[in-house]
Amino acid sequence: MPALIISALALLFVLWLLGEPYLTERKRQRIRAQPFPAAWREILKRRVPYVRALPADLQLQLKRHIQVFVAEKTFIGCAGLEITDEMRVTIAAQACLLILNRPGDYYPNLRQILVYPGSFVVHQAHTDDSGVAHQGRQILSGESWSEGQVILSWQDTLAGAATPTDGQNVAIHEFAHQLDQETGPANGAPLLARRAHYARWSQVLGAEFDALRTRASPDEASLFSDYGATDPAEFFAVISEVFFEQPQRMAEEHPALYHELAQFYRLDPLSW
């Protein structure tokens, strides 16, 4: 009898695992079928001018994604900040821009978005080559954790959204990290559509990363922020900002890199 009960419980567990994705998608369909709130539409007009550049079909897709994202993710105000719909919709719009046309799962590892009024301080520890431990403080406008959290400065998030052509957007940067972290620690190699794509991805991004790190001098002009030379993960996040905000320059100056990102994001901002 105990063995029979265990078998039955195991079967129920398997059925639950198989049925959960179906139930989740049904719930999302119901959310996407609801009218997009008029107040949210005004928020997009006022805070995220980038949306107006999107073709009509992508605008509709983005709005549906925003509805699901806001319903599923928890927003937490930090340092006394009170979370509002303006914050939820503004952040969600930029996060969902990265998953348009992609058969993803709304950042499946992400549970919480922590929002500070402005830049925040983090305490970091590192060990140098001689084995000596050091403690330090760093002022950040955003951070992405593989444990399921994105931390953003509301002030910097607003600034990034308000100027959609300067190639700098902290929300795009941190949510690109989240895509990178879907398979583990961020390393600049997010989950690609096909295994065969990794060789080309590695070749193109590796060459561009090396070029940014080894250019003649820090004063030499570059389309990409110096922060992108930190490591491959930061490079991927930085070029994602530029891909969405300065596609014309990227396509002209770095055509192979633009092609790789267009293939990954399944979008062509040049056509908007």
UniProtKB/TrEMBL annotation:
Instruction: List the GO terms this entry assigns under cellular component, sorted alphabetically.
Output: cytosol
Give the signal peptide range: none
Q: What is this protein called?
A: Zinc-dependent peptidase
Q: Which CDD domains match?
A: Peptidase_M90_mtfA
InterPro entries recorded for this chain? Answer: MetalloPept_cat_dom_sf, MtfA_fam, MtfA_N
Family matches, as Pfam families: Peptidase_M90 (PF06167)
Cite a single GO MF annotation.
metallopeptidase activity
Name the lineage. Bacteria, Pseudomonadati, Pseudomonadota, Betaproteobacteria, Burkholderiales
Q: Which Gene3D superfamilies match?
A: Collagenase (Catalytic Domain), Glucose-regulated metallo-peptidase M90, N-terminal domain
